[in-house]
Amino acid sequence: MAPKSLTLQPRVSIPASNENDVGVLRLAEPVNDAVIALATSEPANGANAIVTGWASGDKLVDVPVSILSAEKCSSGEYKYGEGEILDSMLCALAENSQACGGLAGNPVVSNNQLVGVASWGYGCGNKGNPAVLTDLAALRSWISVNS
């Protein structure tokens, strides 16, 4: 599939804070396959989710994670301080300490909805260092207008 256009969220703040870290890629041709719904609301704190990404050897893997609200993620329990996790962000912590749940750009699905995209973090999203996600429900209106 060839790309047609890429639109970045105009208020994206990279690398300063990674706020609004999302873009919309339009393809030149329609995709005639199943699609996953974009989240309409933020998942509950502690919700189960899956991060899908590539492992070594070009193997596609699913990493189970638990969703953490921005408030929980910046509560001091983890390495993030006040003001680092913003309203357009969520966090995800890999359940398996050997798995990496936070490679930038990887989709995060919970309850059959696309809830986030891995954005940044201190580490790999495991061992007490949650990955920081772009909260797609928070940016849903912008995504809808630009897709």
From TrEMBL:
Gene3D superfamilies: Trypsin-like serine proteases. InterPro entries: Peptidase_S1, Peptidase_S1_PA, Peptidase_S1_PA_chymotrypsin, Trypsin_dom. Keywords: Disulfide bond, Hydrolase, Protease, Serine protease. Residues 1-147 form the Peptidase S1 domain. GO terms for biological process: proteolysis. One of its GO terms (molecular function) is serine-type endopeptidase activity. The keyword Hydrolase applies. This is (Mediterranean fruit fly) hypothetical protein. It comes from Ceratitis capitata (Mediterranean fruit fly). The lineage of its organism: Eukaryota, Metazoa, Ecdysozoa, Arthropoda, Hexapoda.
